[in-house]
Design goal:
3 domains; 33% helix; five-stranded antiparallel beta sheet; Rossmann fold; seven-stranded mixed beta sheet
């Protein structure tokens, strides 16, 4: 944790200032171990492995804690000499580097840090929050950068003052909470007026029929067992290329079809293990933006493909 982030943090219990406790460990200008203390209610929050922790457990997202620490390097452009995550970020948010340079940006659900890495390289200062222990992977990947801050916190009770951030995004996260709309509404107050919020949310459609049936079983299986079972996506990639038979196989047992075998394994695990996985329609999400006081709401064309994904951005009035 960098000391400069204290100006952005408040106690999530009473919304008052936090200070760093007297006993702490520091290395290379990072507070690696210590405690944050509320000046008002005296609540304390530990700093562990460089990350301020505002929760005691990863609650319903233990699969993501496992996933992102197991696959911590798979989707990181900087570790794989690719631009896949950067291209994905561009079309899911519609932003360009000049839109985020010099801005304070909130990453709602940072995971292993794939998109926070992009914002950082574009010149934005990014705070990545996550309920899961994926924060350990994110800190390992990009936490040492001067313009990156990683925090473990619950998006329903964030340790920030309202209207702190210039821009916010949440890519593939809100639909993994107990209530997608409530999660959306919970983070809106932290965005400044005139700031933009970009989201990517799963779309509702027939294409999820068989995978949703499988999920009734897979979400009840041990995480480590699912880790091995989801590796079936690796060889199925080649079977799915067989004319007709491949399409039938993919429909009955959907798995990721990335050319990179590690991405196939990761995305298949990611699909079948989370406790919550809600799907929505774009008019639903559009209505949330309107209700929250957004204007200039845009649905990106890529998000219309098969209605399987909703990529939308709006500006807060």
């Amino acid at each position: 944790m960098k000391l400069k982030i204290l100006k952005h943090l408040v106690c999530p219990s009473c919304n008052e200032e936090l200070r760093l406790g007297e006993d702490y460990n520091e290395k290379d200008n990072e507070i690696t171990e210590g405690v944050l203390i509320c000046v008002n209610c005296k609540s304390t929050y530990k700093i562990i492995k460089g990350v301020p922790r505002f929760i005691d457990t990863d609650k319903y997202v233990d699969t993501f804690s496992f996933e992102w620490n197991k696959f911590h390097d798979v989707q990181m452009d900087i570790l794989n000499d690719t631009d896949e995550s950067e291209r994905t970020f561009k079309w899911k948010t519609g932003w360009k580097p000049e839109d985020l340079k010099g801005k304070l940006v909130l990453d709602v659900g940072v995971g292993a840090g794939r998109f926070a890495d992009v914002v950082s390289r574009w010149g934005g200062e990014v705070i990545g929050i996550d309920l899961s222990y994926a924060v350990d992977a994110a800190y390992k990947n990009i936490g040492a950068r001067e313009n990156v801050h990683i925090i473990q916190a619950d998006l329903f009770n964030l340790p920030f003052r309202h209207e702190t951030f210039d821009h916010m995004y949440s890519i593939g996260v809100l639909h993994h909470t107990p209530d997608t709309k409530k999660a959306f509404m919970a983070v809106v107050p932290y965005l400044k007026k005139g700031g933009e919020f970009a989201v990517f949310i799963y779309g509702r459609g027939y294409h999820h029929y068989f995978s949703d049936i499988w999920r009734k079983i897979t979400t009840k299986l041990p995480i480590r067992l699912m880790y091995y079972l989801s590796s079936i996506a690796i060889p199925l990639y080649y079977i799915h290329k067989i004319p007709f038979f491949g399409k039938v196989a993919q429909a009955l047992l959907p798995t990721a079809n990335w050319p990179d075998w590690r991405w196939r394994w990761l995305d298949t695990f990611d699909w079948y293990t989370p406790k919550y996985q809600w799907k929505h329609t774009w008019p639903e999400v559009f209505k949330w933006f309107k209700e929250a006081g957004f204007t200039e709401i845009e649905l990106f064309e890529e998000g219309l493909s098969g209605l399987s994904q909703i990529c939308m951005r709006g500006k807060k009035l």
